[in-house]
Amino acid sequence: MKASTTQPVIALKGLVKRYGIGDAEHTVLDSVDLVIEKGEFIAIMGPSGCGKTTLLNILGLLDRADDGEYLLDGTSVDTLSAGRRAHIRSNQVGFVFQNFNLVPRLNVIDNVALPLTYRGMRRLKRLKEASRMLSTFHLSEREYYMPWQLSGGQTQRVAIARALVNNPSIVLADEPTGNLDSRSSHVIMEELADIHARGNTIIMVTHNPDLTSYASRVIRMLDGRIDSDTKTPRATKPATAPKKRLDATMASSEKKPAKKRTRKTKKANKS
Ligand SMILES: Nc1ncnc2c1ncn2[C@@H]1O[C@H](COP(=O)(O)OP(=O)(O)O)[C@@H](O)[C@H]1O
Ligand SMILES: [Mg+2]
Fold it and tell me: Structure pTM?
């Protein structure tokens, strides 16, 4: 990462992506211009097929544009070597994709710890980090489960824990709460909001208008173009407050009720 704080983290100019050839060719991203500053929380909305996932894939260096310019931290991604692109993908970007499958032969904690192996972190430290992340998502009791033993919502939360364990500076989330109930959705949104509050950049595709209240900017796409781009007043406070409340709720169920405060309480009855 570069030291500069003034240049945008992402700058797209005339970005074009086409699929198919000849008569079957169609333009999926049609000259997209977009500047994203460090620390923005962007919600991307738009009808199915308008190019949202294609855009995220290009932003995350999983795919390349056919035309136009993409500057990441001021550097044209076209000039990056394959090794450098891979390094950025594993160190700087966190992907939260809807169908981001877990590795079936690894248990939950090893799945979450996986991105840390690319950093050369020792196993014990990796497991500790993974465990911390899983507890954030209230999945501590599932650490040694295998992926097939999880419900759909739990699988998704594990995948998200894995995407965030690296503390990525850019999080790309493609309908991260798509299959989740409202409570699980908010657990995930609180975590994204927390990462955002630490100064990182979040770009999230969502169909759920409620979730745009977490965003500082809402971009609507239509037919491969940006149709509208609105900074939100953040009327709804960023989620740090609700998160604390949530954590407190979860913690209080583990703690003894605070009756009279004695200096040393025996832990014998702790459940
Ligand atoms: N690998 C591909 N090959 C051909 N067409 C594709 C491919 N990926 C996406 N498309 C097409 O590009 C358009 C945009 O897709 P996508 O970015 O997934 O839209 P969204 O995420 O907004 O629903 C769609 O018409 C889709 O069918
Ligand atoms: Mg999509």
Answer: 0.81
The Å distance, Cα 172 to ligand 2 centre, comes to: 12
Provide the residue type at 23 as one letter.
Answer: D
- Tens place of pLDDT for every residue, the chain, 271 residues? 545 457 999 999 999 999 999 989 999 999 999 999 999 999 999 999 999 999 999 999 999 999 999 999 999 999 999 999 988 988 899 888 766 679 999 999 999 999 898 777 899 999 999 999 999 888 999 999 999 999 888 888 898 899 889 889 999 999 988 877 888 788 889 889 988 998 999 999 999 998 999 999 999 999 999 999 999 876 444 444 444 434 433 333 333 333 444 444 444 444 3
Q: Give, for ligand 1, the residue of 53, 54, 57 to mutate: max count of ligand atoms closer than 8 Å to Cβ.
A: 54
Q: Measured in angstroms, how far is the CA atom of residue 47 from the centroid of ligand 2?
A: 9
Q: What is the three-class DSSP state of 231? A: strand
